Structure formats: C-alpha cells, structure tokens
Amino acid sequence: MTAVATRINDFVLKIATVNGTGSASANGLLMKALFRMGIPVTGKNLFPSNIQGLPTWYEIRASKDGYSARVAHVDVMVAMNAQTYAKDLAEVGVGGYLIYDSTWPREAQLAREGVTVLGIPLAQMVNQHFEGARVRTLMKNIAYVGALCALMEIDLDIVRGLLEETFAAKPKLVEPNFKAVRLGYDHARSQFNCPLPFRAEKMDGTRGKILIEGNAAAALGCVYAGATVGAWYPITPSTSLMDAFEGFCRKFRRDPETGENRYCIIQAEDELAAAGMVIGAGWAGARAFTPTSGPGISLMSEFIGFAYFTEIPAVFFDVQRVGPSTGMPTRTQQCDLMLAAYASHGDTRHPVLLPADPKECFEFAPLAFNLAERLQTPVFLLSDLDIGMNDWMVDELSWDDSYKPDRGKVLDDQALAKIDKYYRFFDYDGDGIPYRTLPGSDRKGSYFVRGSGHNQYGGYTEDAAEYQQVVDRLKLKWQTARTLVPEALQRKARGRTDIGIIAFGSSHGATVEALDRLHGQGIDIDYLRLRAFPFGVEVERFIQDHRTVFVLEQNRDAQMRSLLMLELDAPPDKLVSILHYNGLPVPSDQVVEAISSHLQQEAVA
Amino acid sequence: MSFIAKPKVHWEGQEKNELGLTLSDYEGGLSTLCAGCGHDSITAALVRAFWELALKPEQVIKLSGIGCSSKTPAYFLSGAHGFNSVHGRMPSVATGAQAARRDLIAIGISGDGDSLSIGFGQFAHAVRRNLNLLYIIENNGVYGLTKGQFSASADPGSKAKKGFENKNQAIDPVAVAITLGGSFAARSFSGDKQQLVPLIKAGLKHPGCAVIDVISPCVTFNDHLGSTKSYAYTRAHMHAAIETDYIGAQPEIGVDYERGQTTEVTLHDGARIRLNKLAVDYDPSSRAHALNYLEAARNRHEVVTGLLYLNADLPSFHQIAGTAARPLTQFSYEELNPGAEALQRLQQAMR
Fold it and tell me: Which CATH number fits domain B23-350: 3.40.190.10, 3.20.20.80, 3.40.50.300, 3.40.50.970?
C-alpha cells in the first residue's frame, strides 16, 4: 500500500456501474449519508443515453471547504462494471483505491502502480443471502455501500435511518437492505485495514443546506411564480423539470375538495406546438412556460421570433445538453448561448438568465416571468444538464410571501373605460414598452396579433416608415431590458490585480475553486459572474478596468466571448478564452492550469 | 390582412339580436381577398352565425395561421381579440389560449395548405385532444398567395394552372378528423349559406373540436381548383392565359338545394363540382358509417356535405386534463402560491 496523507472530508468517490441495475438509489444513499454527516457534497451523474445496459458513473465529491466543482481525479473508485475496468482504473489518482467485485478475480489485469486494488466478492456474498435475480442485483449495490461505510467511516446509523425513510411505505424492505449493508461492512472490516486514508468524519458543514436538482428547483420556482400553463415535449435533460412541476402542482394546486387542477400541463406533439401553446396562453393572460433543450429551441425558433415581434410574454427553460444536432443528450455544455440570445430570423434579441446553481434556478424562475410580462417578450432561463439533473448542495430555499407578480403594463376594462382609443404598440412612456390588453376584455381593447408588418397602432402595414418605427421602438425596449435583468456579480481578488475572469452558469463552482487555488500560488484575479444577457454597464466597466479578461465557458466556439464583443464592442485582444466542451462538467484543475499557463506564456513573451 | 377600416353603417329598422347588436356589429375590416373569393362568403356566414347566436364579440377569440384563409379573421368580429399566428400553427396557439381562458369561445380559421400540409400535425392533435374550438378549413385545393401550387387536398389527376398534373393522393380533412377520433366532422360549400350558417352555429355550440371543411372556390387559380373539386369528370376549360396580377371581379357562387339531393355547381372557369347533401335521415353517430358514406361518394365523384360525424359525449380537452372550471387566469396569486411555510416543509425531505 502506498502511504498517503490522511484526507478527511476531502475526496472524490466514483462508482462505475451498468445502467438500469438500480445503482442510482445506492449512490444516492451514499451521497445523502455524507450530507447528513455534515460534510459538503456534490454528486454528478454521468449517464448514457440508454435505458439499460450501457456503462454509467456517479461521482461524489466531498469537500470540507464547500467546493462543488469536479476535479480531474478519483480517490476511491468502485468498479462494478467489467466493461470499463481499464478506463476506471486509469482514472484513479496515485495513492487511490479501486474496489471491485472479486467474485470473478481479476487481480492481474487490475494491477497498477500506485493504486491499491481491493477485491470484495459482492455477488458471491449476496447470492448466499438473497434469492431472485432482481433482488440480488439490487443488493449487490447496497453491499458496496456497506463496504464503503467501513472503509471510509461513513456512519452506519445514518445509513440505516435513510433506509427507514426510503422504505417508510414498505418497512419490510428495511431489514433485507440493511442486511446487505452489513454484509459489505463486515467483510471490509474483517479483510482490510479500515479506514482508508480517504475518509469521512462528522462536521458541521451542511446546516441550512439542502440537496436539490436544478430542474426540481426551477419547477418549484414556476409554482411560486404563479405559472398556470406548462406545455412541453419530452427531451433530455429537461424532462424532469416538467415532471417535478406536475408533482408540485398535484401537491399544491389541486383543490382538496373538488380535485380540480389550478394548472394545465399539456404534452405537446412537438416543440413547435409547445412554443405555440405557451405563446397562446401568454397572450390570453396566463403565466406560461416550456422546458426544453437545444434541439427544442431550434424547433421553437419560428415562434420565438413571432413572440418577440408581437410582444407576447413567454418563458423558455433551456436545459442545455451537448450539441450540435442530437449531440450527446446526457452530457452537459453551455452551447446554446448564441441560439437563445438571437433565436429566430430577422433582427431579434432576447433576455437570457444564467443561473449558476439550483438555488438560482428557483430564484430566477419568478424573475423570468416578471421580466417576460414587464418587457412583453420571450425570456430564456438557460441552465444545463449539470445544474438541471445533478444533486447540488445549496442554501435552503426561501420565499417571501409578500411577493406580487409583476404583470407589466396591462389595461383592464376600468383602464380602457378611461381612454378614447386603444393602440397596441404605442410607446406612451418612452421606455419602448407598450400597453397590452387581454382577450375577453372590453371591445375597445380588441386588437389583432400579427407577425406581419404592423404599425404602432396595431394595424397591418407595409409602409417603410411605419415598420421602422416599430422595430426601432423594440430596440429601445432592449435598452430598458438592460436595466431590468440581474446584474453581474463581482468578486474582488484579495490583492490588487489587473487580471479578470468572466464566467457564468455551472462554471461558477470551478471558477471559485480555481481562483482560491491560484491565490495560493500568488496569482490574484478579479471575478465577474454574469447572470444575464443583455449585459449591464458593470460588464462593460469590468472589461475596461482589466488588462486581460479570461472568459470561461463550456462550448467550443467561445460563444460568450463573441457575445461580449458583439454587444459591448469589447476588444478581442483582451478577452482570453478558456474553453471546455467534452460533455463533462468543467473541472477546477483545468481552469487553474489554463490560467497559469497563459500567464506564464505572457510573462515569457 | 385588411388595413382598411370598414365603416359601420347603422340605419333605422336594422334588425337587432338579443344583445341589441346588428349584423354590422359582427363585421370586421374590409376584405382584401380577390373579388368573388369563396372565403368572403364564409366570412359572411360567420358574421350571421355569431349574430344569430347573440354571442358577445369580446367573448370570442379568433385565430388563424398563414394563407388567404388565415387573413379572414380580420374581416369579422372586430370586437374580438384576433391572432394571426405562424403557418400551420394556429391549433397550438388556440390550445394555449384555451388552457388559460376556457370561458372564451375559440374559432380557428385555416386553409388546406395551413392544415393539411405544414400544419397537418397540429390539426391532428387539436382534433384528438378534442380542444373546444370551432376549426374551419377554407379548402380551395390551391396555394393562392404563392400563385397556384397544389395543396394536399388537390385530387390526383387535377391540373395546376400552368398545366402540371397532380399525381399525389388527396387528403380529405373530414375523413381524417373522423379517424383521429374527432367529435364533430362536417363539410360544406362556401356558397351554401343555408347549410353553412347552421353548421357554424352547431360547431360553436359543440363542446369539443368541431371541424368544418368548407369547399371554397379560388377565383384566381380556379383552373386548378375546378379540376380538384370536380375530380376528373367535370373539367371543362383551361384558362392558361389568365394574368395572375389582374383579377376580374366575379360574383360569388351560391347554391340552394335540399337535403338528400345532389347538385352540380359550375365554378368560375366553367368547371363543375358535384355536391351531395346528406339526407335528413342520415345518422351521424357511427364512424364506420360515415367513413363508408364518404368513400362511396368519392367513388361517384361526389363531394358529400353536411354533418358527417358527431359525438358530443367525447371528453374534451379540459375534462381530460381535470382543469378547474374557473378560467386559470382568474385565480388570484394568493390562490396559486403555496406559501413560504409549505416551502420549508417541502425541503425537510431534501436534507
């Protein structure tokens, strides 16, 4: 055994299994047990676009310092899938451990300098104690949880408590599951020198925190925003957003007496229809949204341009996945920035919100509806598979019951009674935002929505000046949007520096950790986290104030950097890209390395 | 879309409905379609149907897609909110609007290009969801605005104005609506006001998706239309030399014949269409019977008109969804917000 320093509450545990074998619940159990021990954790599910049979991984990072990003090595690997042994072994860092099912011994193939291989005959043990193929498969997973409890000192009582909660409705299942835990636990205790240097210890790092996926948080945000209509077409990785919305609505929006739903969810025939439904509902006065991913936005683009030009509020959740085309549906990227910012033909621009974690998904959802109605335009909330489908540890969500939805400029019958004539697209206030009326209101407020050329009065036009007046006002409205979207947040470096970094969304965790580590190496960098498009003046200022500005993003073509240049005339020489786009969440090590090597090169040159 | 306001002329002795409104109160802007267009006859029938039912214009939403037919919502019910959506997507917008405001009366105007080609999917799904929508297809077998291409309802063997022959099979929206599980499927002819007005009224009252396919001659590209609607048997003349940018005023075509009869209509180019009006004792409750009837008529080169199929008991969109009877937009925020405390309780399971 290679001697390594003990690492308490600071390790990466990765489990390699086969899709469809029920390992998700075992991995969730491990993650939650660590969380209940008070240890900050994040879990990344790296799964295939498959229902059964392909390799899948679950990566748990415990970080006493609260870092949530991936790091590019593994300390303890549980290799349950013979197909991927070689790859899994290669990922383990020097001094790390590989645990595998030694029912079929492979010691020779698995030998690697610097890695300790621990064989546990999981299948054999489980087969001796359980009957039935399905039960045996499931219990084998629970047994490795038990082994890890021994090897990494994960609290057995907490594990038992979690099992009791999980099987509250089927208490008979608690004992057999705990028995499987004990099998693994006892075997590890008797055969190995427990604990390993990588181990858990109770701490107080999760008080006031929860574990939640971004999609569930966004769905909850829609409920609290007062959204009543959701239309969608199933697509990975956004499906769980609508599933969660439906679940929350059943809980909170179903009349206990009549069983009537105070919501309407429509599974559309395709994304085109989903967009049309959202726009129809928005026109009719409901708060409506659709969750989708890049391919869906491509299909919805015609309607998005329509809603932009006809000024109808609509909220689009784009949970980004790897493109182009079908791409890798179960992998993550930040590749739809350009698509969302300028979706549809003609001159169009749309506000885009950029949440960095599930908590912001929850908070930005009501904001997205407010912006959509205030600005009368489609608004995007751009998360990604990493945020949307992984469990993140975030501060407990809170809600202010004094929240009132901002329905924007709507003239009701009383307001209509006070005016002589109603003009749909007239800019009374000079902010580029006209007044709208809703179907069903007084006849005086009726108008005809049309994607064809229209004048400020709402009438059809092909007149050059009348058309231009309308699109120029839309441009003015865009300036108003700049003042309404959430501003970028600056995190000043501890020391004075003329180097900056811009990042956003799920790259935030890796950025924070990288900057802390760079500070340790004597490199100080100011950090600006973008939270929305259009960019506010603070973004312009940040770029002006720094000699070099790194732009970290998870796509190949530096889309955010391009947006900054396009929208702010930012000097290209200043903006240095750090790009990560292989489909896995960006690891903090890569950010550290990219920055330090660039600065070294700069110093040499 | 018309941008010419139509002056509302009121005179004494003008007949009023229960709401005290005259027919002209149900009109819209001035039509910019070609003079003699069948679509204008349908607009007139709609105006009359809404007036006779004494519906408040502001209680109605009128939606359409793109094409000649889709321009027509601007020509009736100026007091109703209108929505001219994108090509073939009227049904989805209507679905969203109905989801939000189930109390409003929704009417969708579409055409054969809009509903049977680019929007075939949305047409199909509005029907199978049984959305509470009067869905009118103004069917002329031709793309008018792009000057005379075949639509999917053009019959095989019919010829385009430039002489091309259509070799594809025709889609019959009535037969399609029936096979999709539609609850109301009817056909009429734009010139048959006597039949069309009652069908529109029935469709407006129907608690589900009422599809009315209205054969509506295109005066400008009628060579093609004539052949389409008369199948191979009545083609008389070809007007290959007609200038498309000059459209002579022609009278709208009207018919008046009894139920159970067949009548031949001569279209603008002299081509004829044979209409078969359903007999008084026709039973619209059987899908199999309706489809057989349509097929037999098609073999005789006849276009069947009337209410082919009706089932008012099929669950509608909101019944299936279990939506509240009160329109969703009328719930206050307080009735929708679960509250801060509920959020705290919910998160106990997330630790």
Answer: 3.40.50.970
